[in-house]
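Here is an idea for our session: we take a single protein and study its fold together. Which protein we use is up to you, so please pick one and set it down. Once you have written the record down, we can walk along the chain together:
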Amino acid sequence: MQTPIALTIAGSDSSAGAGLQADLKTFSSFGVFGVTAVTCVVSETPLKVSQVHPVPPNVLQDQVRLLLESYPIGAIKTGMLYSKAHIKAVCELLADTNIPLIVDPVMVASTGDLLMREDALDTIRESLLPLATIITPNLPEAGILLRKSVITKEDQEAAVDELSSTFGASTYLKGGHFENTKTHRDLFKENGKLHVFEHEHLELPQTHGTGCTLSAALAAAISSGLDLPNAGKKAHLFTQQALRESESWNSPTSGEAIFHLSQTQQVHAVIEN
C-alpha cells in the first residue's frame, strides 16, 4: 500500500510550532508524506512575530503547480496566504482539481499580529472559501468572515450554519476562544449534520499552532481515506492530545517560558478508539 500524500500551502514558522513545520510534524504522526508550498518566511516564536517576508506569488504558484503535476496528492490544506495576489495564484490552480481542500483562514497570529494584508479578506471570501471542502475558522476568524460578533455559544451555533451555507463547505468551527469556561466545544457542520466535540479547558499561556495542527490533522486523515465525520473526530482528538502534552523551555535571554504543542505524538494510540 502506498503512503498517502498531503500538500500544505502555508508560511514557514522559524519556531516550528505553526505553519509548514507544524503541518509536516502532524502529517508524519498520521503516517502521511507531506509536501509543501511556501507562501511566506516568518521570523516568529509563540511570543512574537518579528518579520514576514512573502514569497513572490509566481514562485508560490510554480511550487503548487509542480507538486500537483508530480504527486498523487490526497488532500490539500491552506494556511497563511498573506495577500490578494498569493490567494489568486493558488486559486487559479486549485479551481481545476477535485482534491479535498481544507482551508484554515489564517488572519491573526496568537500574539495578535496580523498575518495577512487587509486587501486579502474579500479574495478569501470570494475566491478561496467557495473552493473548500472544509473551512476551519476559530471564533474571531468566523466573526471577521461573517462581519459580526461570534462570542457566545449561541453565536457559534448560528455561525457554523451561516458559514456552511454561505460558502458551500463543511465547517469546523473551533471554540477555544470562549473565556471563563471549564469546557470548550468545537462544532463540525458536515453535509447538513452537526457533530459536537467537547473538551476540557486547559490553562496554557500559549497555544501557538493549534489551528495549523487541527487543519493539518484533517488533511492527513482525509488523505488516508477517512470520511469527513471520522476525520473531524480524529483531528479533534489529535489536537487535544497535542495541547495536553505541550512542552516548554525557558528563553535564555528573558527567562520567559515558551510553550509548544506536541505534534510528534504517536497518533495511532490517540485516534484508533
Q: What stands out?
A: The chain has a mean pLDDT of 90. The chain is about 40% helix and 25% strand. Residues 5-271 form a domain with the UDP-N-acetylmuramoyl-L-alanine:D-glutamate ligase fold (CATH 3.40.1190.20). The chain has one domain: 5-271.
